[in-house]
């Protein structure tokens, strides 16, 4: 690692800590030439997931897009930002574990719906109505009746 101040190549690690739930290691370093202290971060570079859309198109997975969709479904419900972030992070972790490079959008939607159903039934129905493309009220009622039947 080169010193950002003098560009000397030798340094000493004086402190290492795990951050971001153990996904990253933060290292405090000191340059052996000029004694300048600096911080570096080390993390595993994961291959980016690609989403296979219903129409066959491929696009890069976008965490912000998933987060936004879940936030809309959870709007005006008693669900904290931490719960929403946790749900999205859990789905992403599950996807990265199960899929190397490509994942169908239907799988992503199903995983989000499974977690939303446990978190908040109203948010679940809101998300499902968009994801499953409900065309009329009868489909909406059918989903709600299905929820009631599962209790």
Please tag this protein with its features.
151 residues; alpha+beta; 2 domains; three-stranded antiparallel β-sheet; three-stranded mixed β-sheet; elongated
Q: Could you explain how this protein is built, in words?
A:
The chain is α+β, with helices and mostly antiparallel strands. The chain has two domains: 11-43; 50-150. Helix content is 46%, strand content 22%. The chain contains five helices and six strands; from the N terminus they run E-E-E-E-E-H-H-E-H-H-H. The strands form two sheets. Strands 1-2-3 form a three-stranded antiparallel beta sheet, with no helix packed on it. The longest helix has 18 residues, at 81-98. It starts with 10 loop residues before the first strand and ends with a helix. The model has no long low-confidence stretch (mean pLDDT 90).
Q: Distance between the terminal alpha carbons, to the nearest Å?
A: 57 Å
User: In what order do the strands lie side by side in the largest sheet?
Assistant: 1-2-3
Radius of gyration (Å): 22 Å
Calculate the mean pLDDT score and round it: 90
- What is the molecular shape? elongated
Count of DSSP strands: 6
Structural class: alpha+beta
Estimated share of beta-strand residues: 15-25%
What's the SSE pattern? EEEEEHHEHHH
Total tally of structural domains: 2
Q: How helical, in percent, are the residues?
A: 40-55%
The largest pleated sheet is described as: 3 strands, antiparallel
- In DSSP terms (H or I, runs of 4 or more residues), the helix count works out at 5
Ranges where pLDDT stays below 50 over 5 or more residues in a row are none
